[in-house]
Amino acid sequence: MNDIDPNLFSCFAIDGHTRLLGVIGHPVAHSLSPAMHNLALDALKLNYRYLPFPVAPEHLHELVVGLKAVGCAGFNITIPHKETIIRCIGGVGAEARWIGAVNTVTLGQDGRFWGYNTDAAGFMAALDEVYQPTKARPNVILMGAGGAAKAVVAGLLLAGEWGRITVVNRTAERAHRLLDDLMRPELLDEVGFYKNDVQLPEVEAISLKEAADLPLERCDLLVNTTSVGLNGEGSLGIDLDRLPEEAFIYDIVYSPLETPLLKEARIRGLAGANGLGMLIHQGALAFRIWTGEEMPVDMVRNHLRRLVGGI
Ligand code: ATR
Questions:
Q1: How does 158-172 read in b/e, with b if 16+ C-beta sit within 10 Å?
Q2: Distance (Å, whole) CA 19 – CA 225
Q3: In the chain, at which end, N or C, are there fewer CB atoms within 10 A of the end residue's CB?
C-alpha cells in the first residue's frame, strides 16, 4: 500500500470531517453530476464527496429527512423530483419559485434546506460562451415546453435582450401554459423585473404543426429543449434550410456530442453547440452555492467530453 499516492485515490481522503453532497433522481445512474463534482472537489482538495441517490417519488420525503439528519451539505435534484422537492424543504429562492422547480438544495445557516434553480442562469452562462448576437433584440425560437424549456425561457427573460421568444411544442396547450406561468406579473415582480426595468420580449406559444408558417428567416437563435435527438435519434420537424446563415443552434441534448440537430446544422454551415455547457454551468453555480469556490470548468469540460464521447 505504501507505493500508492493517496492524492490519486480520493476515497482514501475520506475522513471524519468529510461532508456529503449528492444528486437525487429516479433514475439517476445516467447522471454525469457525480463525475463532474467529484473531479472538481478533488482538483480543489475540498473535503466533500458527491454521491448518486436513486429514490422513487414515494421515498423522497424520507430521504430528505435522512439527509438532514446526517448533516448533508446539499444536493442536486433531477427528474422526476424537481417540482415535488419544494414541499420537502424549508424554503426556496425567488427564481426557483418563479420557475416552479428546484435543482439545487443547500443546508442554510438556519439549519434548514433551501432550494434554488441554477438551470436558468446555467443555460445563459453556457449560451454566453458560444453565442454573440449580431443584432439588437434578436429573435429566439425555442422547441419544447417541459421542465427544461421553462428554465431556459426564464434564463432568456432574465437576460432581457430579446425581441421575440416563440415557444413551439408538439402539444400547444403546454407551451401556452409555460408562458402563462412565467409571465405572471406578481412573479415577475418578485424576481425583480420591474424594479430592475428588465425589457420583456414579445412572447408567443404555437404548436409544432403551426411552425411550418413561422418566419424562420427572422430567427437568430434556435434552442432545442425537447428530448428529440437524445441517443442520436429523431428530427425536430423544423426546416433548417429556411434559417438565415448567421442563425445559431443551441441543443440542450449532449449525448451524442453531435446531436442529429447539430449534424443537420453543420451540413448547412450553421453554427451550434450542444448542452454540455449548460450541464457544466448549472453544476458550477451549485458548486459555488455549496462550497463558495469556483468550479474548474475547463478541466470538467474536458473530462465530461471524454466520458460522453467514449474517448
Ligand atoms: P424535461 O423536463 O426534460 O423538459 P419533459 O417535461 O418530459 O422533459 O418534456 C419533454 C419535451 O420534449 C416536451 O416539450 C415534449 O413535447 P410534449 O409536451 O408535446 O410531450 C417534447 N418531446 C418529446 N418527444 C417528442 C417528439 N418525438 N416530438 C416532439 N416533441 C417531443
A1: bbeebbbbbbbbbeb
A2: 34
A3: N
Q: How many angstroms does the Cα of residue 46 sit away from the middle of ligand 1?
A: 38
Tell me, in angstroms, the distance from the centre of ligand 1 to residue 145's CA: 7
Here the cell at position 244 is 438565415
Model-level pTM greater than 0.70? yes
Per-residue pLDDT of the chain (311 residues; tens, 9 = 90+): 445 454 555 666 899 999 999 999 999 999 999 999 999 999 999 999 999 999 999 999 999 999 999 999 999 999 999 999 999 999 999 999 999 999 999 999 999 999 999 999 999 999 999 999 999 999 999 999 999 999 999 999 999 899 999 999 999 999 999 999 999 999 999 999 999 899 999 999 999 999 989 999 999 999 999 999 888 888 888 899 999 999 999 999 999 999 999 999 999 999 999 999 999 999 999 999 999 999 999 999 999 999 999 76
Counting from 1 in the atom list of ligand 1, the atom nearest the Cα of 147 is: 2
Q: Which residues are catalytic?
A: 82
Q: How far is the CA of 120 from the centre of ligand 1 (A)?
A: 18
Ligand 1 atom with minimal separation from the 170 CA: 19
